[in-house]
Amino acid sequence: MRRGFRRTLVAVTSAALMLSASACGGKTAEGGGGEGGDDALKVGLAFDIGGRGDQSFNDSAAAGLDRAAKELKIETEEISAKPDEPDSDKESRLRLLANQGFNPIIGVGFAYTASVNKVAKEFPDTKFLVVDADGCKVEGANVGAACFAEEQGSFLVGAAAALTSETGKIGFIGGVNVPLIQRFEAGYEAGAKEVKPDTEVLSKYLTQPPNFNGFKDVSLGNEAAKGMLDDDADVIYHAAGGAGIGVIKTVGGAGKWAVGVDADQYNQPALAGVKDRILTSMVKKVDVAVYDFVKSVSDGSFKAGPKEYDLANDGVGYATSGGHVDDIKAKLEELKKGIISGEIKVPAGA
Question: Any idea where the ABC transporter substrate-binding protein PnrA-like domain is (predicted)?
Answer without folding.
Answer: 46-348
